[in-house]
């Protein structure tokens, strides 16, 4: 039995949650099915799309031209290049040591492959725009072994499916052996377009025992040992939110440890933000920083998930983007009954009144974990009827 996993994982992507969820699902499946060959597939940039409406295609082309112009007139500082190169090397070392993967996989390679089963997920593999669908991410291809198709903890990133995409997505998912999604809200979303029997499952990082994550840790700064600090990991926080973070940490006399330019974009506010930057932070160092923090403050889904894995006190910043992509955070906070940890810059936060009851949080997550493990066993076991 040979399994190919398709996600947002790519060997040149410096995204902590992306790489750690890829590691987690790969590692978990290999532990449950040691007789199987399991590979994560890093896709080439040339991917197949279908276009579901001509007006949407025209709108997309216009936006692409505008973005290309903006990219050409924008300048990139040497500091950005330095950060990307150092961090990329750290990620590459982690991938080579910990993830069994195949790189630069193309459409033709998938069609000619000998995989018995494809799994798509986790992460925002089903993120989409009006009138355009990534066929590979919906497993809309057939290989020479007519492989089974499964989604595990797939996410749309938003609680919406564009109207012109609905029919095509429904048709593609009807060919799956089993469908599961990461956000409970996505269960109803798919039912609304005619995809039934959808299961809510846990992010792959929650499937592994805590000790596995501890074994991956690396200390980024010896000086941090024994120091009280807040690990601030943010991808899109605005200046108002960063000011709130500085106030919270100042009141508690906590040093601010952070990963500069974590989103890949440079924000002017970051130049003067924080106390201890961890510039070339590897995935193992990122895990250590969460594990040993007094507080974790983040707008990242996986930042929150790893906070719960290590039973940390965490606070959540709302991501202020043009598109509302906070559903993944809100869904997870609702699941574990921790929505009061969501910080908004327009209100005062009384941190001292907050509690983190991990006996209840773990009980909820253990139930979801058991359900998810059973889903994967049934979906990937070739002896279970399709």
What characteristics describe this protein?
6-stranded parallel sheet, alpha/beta, Rossmann fold, 386 residues, 16% strand
Task: Set down the secondary structure blueprint.
Elements: E1 2-6, H1 16-32, E2 37-43, E3 49-51, H2 54-73, H3 78-98, E4 101-105, H4 107-111, E5 117-120, E6 132-134, E7 148-154, H5 166-173, E8 178-181, H6 184-191, E9 198-200, H7 210-216, E10 229-233, H8 239-251, E11 255-258, E12 276-277, H9 283-291, E13 295-298, H10 301-309, E14 313-317, H11 327-335, E15 342-343, H12 358-380
Question: Would you mind describing this structure in some detail?
Answer:
The protein folds into two domains: 2-207 and 368-380, Rossmann fold; 210-354, Rossmann fold (3-Layer(aba) Sandwich). The protein is 39% helix and 16% strand. The chain has helices at 16-32, 54-73, 78-98, 107-111, 166-173, 184-191, 210-216, 239-251, 283-291, 301-309, 327-335, 358-380, and strands spanning 2-6, 37-43, 49-51, 101-105, 117-120, 132-134, 148-154, 178-181, 198-200, 229-233, 255-258, 276-277, 295-298, 313-317, 342-343. It is globular, with a radius of gyration of 21 Å. The chain starts with a strand and ends in a 6-residue tail after the last helix.
């Amino acid at each position: 039995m040979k399994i190919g996993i398709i996600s947002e994982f790519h060997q040149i992507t410096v995204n902590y949650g992306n790489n750690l969820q890829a590691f987690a699902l790969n590692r978990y499946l290999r532990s449950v099915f040691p007789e199987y060959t399991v590979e994560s597939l890093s896709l080439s940039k040339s991917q197949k799309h279908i276009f579901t409406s001509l007006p949407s295609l025209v709108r997309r082309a216009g936006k692409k031209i505008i973005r290309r112009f903006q990219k050409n007139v924008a300048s990139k500082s040497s500091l950005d290049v330095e950060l990307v190169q150092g961090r990329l090397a750290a990620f590459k070392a982690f991938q080579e040591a910990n993830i069994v993967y195949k790189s630069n996989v193309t459409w033709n390679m998938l069609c000619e492959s000998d995989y018995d089963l494809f799994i798509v997920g986790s992460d925002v593999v089903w993120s989409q725009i009006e009138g355009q669908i990534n066929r590979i991410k919906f497993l809309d291809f057939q290989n020479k072994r007519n492989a089974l198709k499964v989604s595990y903890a797939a996410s749309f990133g938003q609680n919406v499916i564009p109207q012109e995409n609905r029919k095509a997505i429904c048709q593609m998912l009807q060919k799956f052996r089993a469908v599961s999604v990461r956000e409970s809200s996505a269960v109803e979303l798919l039912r609304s377009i005619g995809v039934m029997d959808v299961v809510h499952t846990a992010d792959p990082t929650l499937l592994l025992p805590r000790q596995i994550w501890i074994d991956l840790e690396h200390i980024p700064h010896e000086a941090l040992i024994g120091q009280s600090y807040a690990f601030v990991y943010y991808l899109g926080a605005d200046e108002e939110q960063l000011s709130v973070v500085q106030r919270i940490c100042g009141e508690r006399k906590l040093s601010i440890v952070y990963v500069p330019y974590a989103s890949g974009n440079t924000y002017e506010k970051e130049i003067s933000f924080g106390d201890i930057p961890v510039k070339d932070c590897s995935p193992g160092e990122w895990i250590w920083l969460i594990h040993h923090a007094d507080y974790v403050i983040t707008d990242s889904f996986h930042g929150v998930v790893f906070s719960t894995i290590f039973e940390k006190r965490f606070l959540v910043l709302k991501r202020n983007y043009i598109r509302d992509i906070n559903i993944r955070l809100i869904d997870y906070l609702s699941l574990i009954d921790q929505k009061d940890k969501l910080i908004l810059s327009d209100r005062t936060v009384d941190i001292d009144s907050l509690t983190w009851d991990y006996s209840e949080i773990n009980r909820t997550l253990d139930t979801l974990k058991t359900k998810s493990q059973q889903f994967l066993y049934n979906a990937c076991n070739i002896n279970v009827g399709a």
